[in-house]
Amino acid sequence: MDYMISAKPIRIIDRSIDKNLKSIKSLTILGVGHLPDRKLFRHQAIFYHWAVVYIANGSGTYRINGGEIQQVRKGSFFLFHPDAYYDYGPAAHETWDEYYFTIEGSRIQEWLDTWLTDPNQVRQLRMDDNYESKINLIFSLMESIDPSNLDRAALLLESLLYELVSASRPKPHYSEGTPVLKLLDSISASINQPFHAAEICKKHFISLTTLRRTVRNATGYSLHEYVHRLKISEAKKLLLNHNLTVKETATTLGFTDVFYFSRLFKKFAGVSPSHYRANM
Questions:
Q1: Per residue in 82-127, pLDDT tens?
Q2: Domain end among 137, 168, 199
Q3: 195 in a domain, yes or no?
């Protein structure tokens, strides 16, 4: 990756470690970098390892092996891999805000065989604070000298990449008033109380199996993950815009166990509720 490419300070973390010290041998993050206001456009660049790139701001283009020019915008992510060359970077007189992760390991082939089926495609996402929270946590873990934290960083990156790929897939379009939208509206309306799937099923005259299948097909998430994401999204708003304690926030969203709420929040936001409030 390039170092002298931005007028602003850049952040580069390279990690070389004896693999025998790592518990997870199948995936290693070799280095990460944050290049704010990147201005350099590279021509026919080659890479010796796989890399994941996320663009937090700005725009430009990406092309592999002289093929189709793909547009890159805020919220785009794409990959580099060996045995190819790339023309990429921000448009002339423009910049972009780039995060990259250089990786290696047999796990990558497993991704390609299952859910990462088009590695040469730029994917576009709607912005979500959760993504950058997880990215910042990966950077923090990479700065540690503890090998177990490097394992944690690798697993978190895998989780983030899967989430990015899933979120970039086209979702079915439903007209207003359709049964699917009514069902999702009912779930959304229930976020301020403990979630009871049986009550939703009864209201819409469907089985639990149908409820689970419908939510999965409409959102890409399992029923409980979708509910949790709705609640955590609302929790972020409450934490930033109200003076509620973490416990009061949990109670407002129907959680009876504040510790369980905090674990869920950290799972989806990448940081604890208190840390999120203090640093956003």
A1: 999 999 999 988 999 999 999 999 999 999 988 898 999 999 987 6
A2: 168
A3: yes
